[in-house]
Amino acid sequence: MGRIDTVEQPIDANAAVAAAEQALADISAVKKAVSEVIYGQENVVEQTLLAVLSGGHALLVGVPGLAKTKLVSTLGTVLGLSSNRIQFTPDLMPSDILGSEVMDQDETGRRSFRFVPGPVFTQLLMADEINRASPRTQSALLQAMQEYHVTVAGAPHDLPRPFHVLATQNPLEQEGTYPLPEAQLDRFLMQVDVPYPEMAAERQILLETTGAAESIAKPAITMERLAAIQMLIRQMPVPESVVDAILELVRSARPGHGNAKVDETVSWGPGPRAGQALMLCARARALYDGRLAPSIDDVRALAEPILQHRMALTFAARAEGIGIRDVIAGLVAPKAG
After folding, report:
1. Which of 178-182, 213-217, 232-236 shows the lowest per-residue confidence on average (mean pLDDT)?
2. pTM, rounded to two decimals
3. CA 205, CA 214: separation in Å to the nearest integer?
4. Where does the record place the ChlI/MoxR AAA lid domain (predicted)?
5. Under CATH, which number does the domain 238-337 receive?
6. What are 145-158's pLDDT values in tens digits?
7. Contacts with 299 (C-beta within 8 Å, 6 or more apart), sequence order
8. How buried is residue 201: exposed, middle or buried, by Cβ count under 10 Å (0-12/13-18/19+)?
9. Which of 51, 166, 170, 242 is placed for a possible disulfide with 72 were both Cys, Cβ 3.0 to 4.6 Å?
10. What share of the chain is helix, strand, coil (3-state, %, to 5)?
């Protein structure tokens, strides 16, 4: 089953306001449930939730021990989704993710093949340390992430809906890692950078997680409500000025499109999927903040997590110590006045 590419017909204004108010109440319940288990990291929680509310996948990048795995498992419980976790290792095979066919023999001696689904057949898949596995195994997720079905032994098998992949990778410990190819990075709606917690949050972590009792995530909404919110987000109107801002930002991030600084520093830029991601996530961010339509500020706020993994710097730019975030900040800053 393919991704829904078209936006449904807009619903009438009164119904839209009522639906948005209900969705906002549900989102508030989700945020509260997550905050009882994950301390601090509001930006990380927000961006990860936006990716799921937009119907997409997210790549969480941070050093070990920052509760990336805990965040994903918490979201699965809070959002009412079935979830599985795969620990990616160098010896992991594609069949370990997708499943395989096994031979059965009945009482008459007749043999037949039976498909045994792998852990990918879930609604929220956690791909832990995804860059530890070989490129062949990484690519096994490609079809699932884009087309929402997998093919095993020539037979297609549909995945549950909704289906989300939240993958983690560590920027350090590069021994034994295989960088994700550009095609697979592009499948992730956004890259969420997970920083060290602030002092107050880290104090709370120390106090709350080392006692006899530890907080446990509780469901806040059902899978059906999540699907309804995802559809509502796709129905939200986007002002023409926001569409223009998205196009301008994405196109200006590509070499050869009139930006001298980008021509010097960027070897390849974001494709049309980046614009699609900005359209969806800007709507989701507006609803997350209790607004009925996205603004240009939403586009600016989402530029870094949506563009940074869809661009690559030239060798000269890397040699000068220029970072991809610096380039994106330069693209957003002139429009901030």
Report:
1. 213-217
2. 0.81
3. 10
4. 262-322
5. 1.10.8.80
6. 888 888 777 778 88
7. 242, 245, 246, 249, 278, 282
8. middle
9. 166
10. 50, 15, 35
